[in-house]
């Protein structure tokens, strides 16, 4: 075998080895993916409920006109639809890690009772304390606990509702 042919063969083998290594890494990353809090599509969410510790629950509904309305008491149009769209986006919040709820003392992480509950089309997301190691919060979704960015924690909505007729 000539020197040039041998070098091409070695180069081809090196490229194949790198491709195999890249494929293995992609499979490993896909297997470790944590996903999102829910499988809901934020664009299709039409009912949002917020319960904050020490405050009465708030309920909102997206009506046929595409705007959000507060449905507690007399229905009133929400002045800031963008705030409710942000809450709906919580459905697809990136989860940093998942663990079974049985791994935790729920009172110690602020989930007995939860600090806040966000209900998106009937699916409850219960928010607890912040994590000591960074700007993340514990969130109970069914029987699992997720860690998500603090940006997704429901806050006092400060939404001004105005009646529209």
Summarize the structure.
This protein is an alpha+beta fold and 165 residues long. It has helices at 3-32, 81-89, and strands at 47-52, 58-62, 68-70, 76-78, 95-100, 116-120, 123-130, 136-141, 144-149, 161-162.
> What is the number of helices?
2
Q: DSSP strand (E) fraction? A: 25-35%
Main sheet record: 10 strands, antiparallel
Order of helices and strands: HEEEEHEEEEEE
Number of strands: 10
Order of neighbouring strands in the sheet with most strands: 5-9-8-7-6-1-2-3-4-10
Rounded mean pLDDT is 85
Secondary structure class reads: alpha+beta
User: What is the radius of gyration computed over CA atoms, rounded to a whole number of angstroms?
Assistant: 24 Å
Number of domains: 2
Q: How does this structure look, described?
A:
Helix content is 24%, strand content 30%. By secondary structure, the chain is α+β, with helices and mostly antiparallel strands. It has 2 domains: 1-33; 42-162, no CATH class. A 10-stranded antiparallel sheet has the order 5-9-8-7-6-1-2-3-4-10, with helices on one face. This is DUF4340 domain-containing protein.
